[in-house]
Structures are given as structure tokens and as C-alpha cells.
Prior knowledge:
- This protein has 15 helices and ten strands.
- It is an alpha+beta fold.
- Strand 1 and strand 2 form a beta hairpin.
Amino acid sequence: MLDKHLLDLTDKVKDLQPLFFQSAWNNDVVNGKVKAIPAFLDAGAMYYRKDLLAKYNEQPPKTWEELARIAAKIQKGEREAGKKNFWGFVFQGKAYEGMTCDALEWIASYNGGTFVDKDGKITVNNPQAAKALNTAASWIGTISPKGVLGYMEEESRAVFQNGDAAFMRNWPYAYVLAQDPTSPVKGNVGVIPVPKGGDDGQHAATLGGWQWAVSAYTEHPDASVQLIRILTDAESQKMQFKTVGVAPSRLDVYEDPEVIASAPYLTEFKDVFATAVPRPAVETKSQFPKVSKAVFNAAYDVLSGRSTGEKAVADLESKLKRIKGKQWK
């Protein structure tokens, strides 16, 4: 837990808050104190083949149900056209941290919460969370290959970028690679927010990214804060994007004419970042690695057919209670 080792920046940077994506800013607030400033962002996104949606006269899906229908339609058509190994949807289905990220998106999108709420209460055992996991399990062997249970980010990208899938859940890094001159799908890749869980659900992308913070033991606190303000100003973030390609955490950089001209795709990620949902790391403190392991194992059990969504969320609640004990620490 880094909290006690980081300088409280609240009074020194509170004027900057409106300039950043609020989900990213709020993720750096611990016990009401700002402990870091977002450096650059990462969040789950849904990739799709623009050419194939046009070919089958479909619009980008807004819900998981629409995605499943469109994926099945395109998969059937492409296989009938001779692409026997074509799939509708690929994602990260292996039992690891990436599965926790995917499971968070599924459950939160169905209004099933984030496993543990902001007050540290374990909330995962609810019908919406169970429905989300059961929905994901229904994709295995239908619109998603059984092999997806061994996929991490790169395995998913390989299938999609090779032209063998209509949809892919992945992180922003995959966009630049998919648009590489050697990519079979270059020029045909679109990006939308992770779908909602039904019409009454919400878009929910798992938040990732990096932060700037100051050591609590610094001998030069004022200079350190000034440096952070420089590193996170619009010009610095613009320069970082142009040289390294990382997604800015400031809203105004997405409106910069030079940035838009050099990377028009970046505007597609603005809506993705706006709906980002953090994993409950702040709430579960040093026990988050155990929490995440329990989550991805529970989700994997449902996807692999070893459990149902209802049983998995009940079992997960019991495991998380054992991990928590009297309180998160």
C-alpha cells in the first residue's frame, strides 16, 4: 500500500481536477486526499471490423446482446464464404489479471457493481453479476473459440489482426498495431466503448494507466509538485503522445488540432476513457492481489462450464469475506 509513502497533493493541485478525466482523477484520491495525478490512460475498448459491419448492413453494437447477434451473423456469413476459422468475438479468457478486467466490465455493465464497493462492502453476490457471467459463458464455443480460455491480450490481438474475428476486447495499444502497414485489417478497424449489459445497463471499461506522485520523504516537496504540474500540463502530455504514443489523461489534449490531425483515432477513445471503472484496489488495500485472483478464478470457472454464474458469485462472496476478515488491510 503506497498511500502512507506518498505526499498529500490535495491543496497543491485541486485547481487541476476539472482538466482531467474524472474517473482517472478519482482513482488517485485515497481517503479524501489526492495522492497522485494521472499521467496517461489505459482502458478496455471494443474493436470491430468496419468493413464487415458494412458488408452485413449492421451498426456498431451498444449492448452485449447486440454484439452477440451481430457477431453470430458475421461469423456464419464468413464461414459460408470459406473462412472456416472465423470467429465473432475474441477477448482475454485466461485465468489471470486480464480476466479480472474483463469480468469487471461484464458485471459493471449489467449494473452488478465492482465486486467491492467504495465503502469496502462486498457486493458481488447479486443477480446482475450472475447474469453477466452467464452471458459471457454463452459466448464460448458459439461466437468465441474454446481456445479463448487460454487467451491473453496478444493471443486475442493475433486472431483479430489476422482477420479472423469480427470483434475484439483489448486495450488501446492494439489500435496502432492493427493499423500497421503490414496488418491485414489496416484501415478497417473501428473502436467503440465496451457494450452495455442490456438497454438499462451502462458502458463500463476497466481503468488502467499510470500516475505521477511525490515521495512523502522528499526534501524538496514544492519543487517536486511543480515538476508534476509541468509533466501533466497540456504541452507535456501532447509531447508524450507524439513521441511515445500514450493516451493523454487531460481532456483538452483531445481537442488539440495538431493531435487530432496526427491521430484522429484518438478521439474514438475519449468516450472509452470517460466510462472507465477502476478495480477495487483502493478499497481492498494490500489484499487486492488475493481479491483479483479470487475474481478471475471464479469467472474462469463459469466460462469453462465448471460453475454457474449464480454459484460462482455466491462462492466468490464467501472467499472475499475470508480474505477481508474483520477489515481490509
